[in-house]
């Protein structure tokens, strides 16, 4: 069988290489470890630094997103309040508000999540 003639030669060569590597490997492993350790350490160090930078960037992105959501909620609350107030002829928005009522930002504990859409007082 002519098909397997080439295979027998390469199988014997592969077997010889495997046996040779098995004998040489114990002698080469300490050298390979010594050479590969600094490279592996550098790769791991770069990975940890990239992870830390990504974590900080994502935290900043979360803060910016939270701020934007708070601004939008405040605007929606203000729009809803303006839409729900009855419009009286001759009275402007500036004169319609009570001067004694503190602004929402000065109210203790005021945050966009705590806004009440109806005004009391």
Description:
The protein has one domain (7-83, 104-114). The chain is 71% helix and 0% strand. It is built from two helices and no strands. It has helices at 3-84, 93-96.
> Which structural class do the helices and strands define?
mainly alpha
How many structural units, i.e. domains?
A: 1
Oligomer state of the chains in this structure: single chain
Query: How would a textbook summarize the main sheet?
Result: none
Helix percent reads over 70%
Secondary structure: number of strands? 0
Termini separation: 103 Å
Rg: 37 Å
**Beta-strand percentage range:** under 5%
Uncertain spans: none
Question: Which key phrases capture this entry?
Answer:
mainly alpha; 121 residues
Any chance you could write out the topology, listing elements then pairs?
Layout: H1 3-84, H2 93-96
Short synopsis of the structure:
By secondary structure, the protein is mainly α.
């Amino acid at each position: 069988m002519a098909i397997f003639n080439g295979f027998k030669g390469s199988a014997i060569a592969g077997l010889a290489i495997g046996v040779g590597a098995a004998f040489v490997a114990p002698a080469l492993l300490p050298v390979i470890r010594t050479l590969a350790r600094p490279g592996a350490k550098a790769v791991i160090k770069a990975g940890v630094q990239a992870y830390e930078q990504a974590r900080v960037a994502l935290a900043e992105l979360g803060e910016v997103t939270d701020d934007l959501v708070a601004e939008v909620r405040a605007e929606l609350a203000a729009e809803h309040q303006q839409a729900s107030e009855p419009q009286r002829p001759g009275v402007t928005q500036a004169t319609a508000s009570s001067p004694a009522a503190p602004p929402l930002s000065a109210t203790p504990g005021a945050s966009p999540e705590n806004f009440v859409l109806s005004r009391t007082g």
